[in-house]
Design a protein that fits this description.
By secondary structure, this protein is of the alpha/beta class. It is 32% helix and 27% strand. The longest helix is centred in the middle third of the chain and has 21 residues, at 114-134. It holds the Pfam family ADH_N.
């Protein structure tokens, strides 16, 4: 089969598109013929050796796929050959086939297109877990989302609105803010032409924000850390801006808020039942048209390097899907 392979941790341009052996299912696994694979910011960090996980090389990146089961491993009885599924494979998604633990594979309704199904696995699932399990957000609370036009940012806007929050979208351009507004944002802040801390104070009437879904890092994080409401929850989701900030912890003491880490990949391993329950809820919301996936672009698998560079450069509104 064809696959994108990372031979050594290096810039994205050094990824190769080559023939590799087809995967074979181990006990408890299935093999999926991939129809679509989502592209995510952590994929770009992973191949450069900049992510929390550092897999042995060579490896195939790509953690979320949609496709059709073609082989069953020993002991798998709840899934069938020919079934359309989505899967959290962690690695191996930038390929024509992938072997994946059956515990991380879910059947999908025919109403969900492959590209959108694949894109649900990481971006929406991260936002869902962050707001449900980590923030335990309540109706009527304020939710500020940074990077609100990106894949997981848009998901947080949608899900926060669905869970009853008043959503403040923070983006760097008016075009991105328009996308966030179309996905349910109530208040828009363009941090490229205004002071973010001052703007947050104005739109919250000095109260601060109950929950921040923070994906950017750097100065954006610092502005948010100084803009929290009492009993607020500052969710640390990622650092798309490239700078991992340091927090003056006296702010947490004085302002009475919590800093909460969100590592969805680890959550799926430590709490597999909660992960499965979350995915079933997400799929139900999608079918009920309560959430949607914004596919910015669909590109051939061999153009994965270009897709990753667009995501890493924060030039994508929503998600990019790879097609083998």
């Amino acid at each position: 089969m064809k696959a994108i392979v990372c031979n050594e941790f290096a810039p994205v341009e050094q990824l190769t598109f080559i023939d590799v052996p087809d995967p074979q299912p181990k006990k408890g696994e299935v093999v999926i013929d991939i129809k679509a694979c989502g592209v995510n910011f952590p994929d770009g960090l992973l191949v450069q050796g900049l992510y929390q996980l550092k897999p042995p090389r060579p490896f195939i990146p790509g953690g979320e796929v949609a496709g059709v089961i073609s082989q069953l491993g020993e002991g798998v009885s709840h899934l069938k050959i020919g079934m359309r599924v989505i899967a959290l494979c962690m690695l191996g998604g930038y390929a024509q086939k992938v072997a994946c633990p059956a515990t991380h594979v879910l059947p999908i309704p025919d109403a969900i297109p492959d590209d959108e199904a694949a894109a649900l696995v990481t971006a929406h699932a991260t936002a869902h877990h962050a707001l449900k399990q980590r923030a335990q957000i309540k109706p009527g609370e304020t939710l500020l989302v940074t990077g609100a036009a990106g894949g997981t940012g848009l998901a947080a806007v949608q899900i926060g609105k669905l869970m009853g929050a008043k959503v403040i979208a923070v983006c760097s351009t008016q075009e991105k803010l328009d996308v966030a507004k179309a996905n349910g944002a109530d208040i828009l802040i363009n941090y490229s032409d205004t002071d973010l801390k001052t703007a947050i104070k104005e739109v919250t009437n000095g109260k601060g924000v109950d929950v921040v879904y923070e994906c950017v890092g750097g100065n954006t994080f610092h502005a948010c850390s100084r803009s929290m409401a009492w009993n607020g929850r500052l969710l640390v989701v990622g650092f798309a801006g490239g700078t991992i900030p340091e927090l003056p912890v006296n702010l947490c003491l004085v302002k009475g808020y919590s800093v909460v880490g969100v590592f969805w990949g680890s959550f799926t391993q430590h709490q597999p039942k909660d992960f499965a329950d979350n995915m079933h809820e997400l799929l139900m919301w999608y079918v009920q048209d309560k959430v949607k996936v914004n596919i910015d672009e669909v590109v051939p698998l061999e153009q994965a390097k270009d897709a990753l560079n667009k995501v890493m450069g924060r030039k994508v509104k929503g998600k990019i899907s790879l097609r083998p």
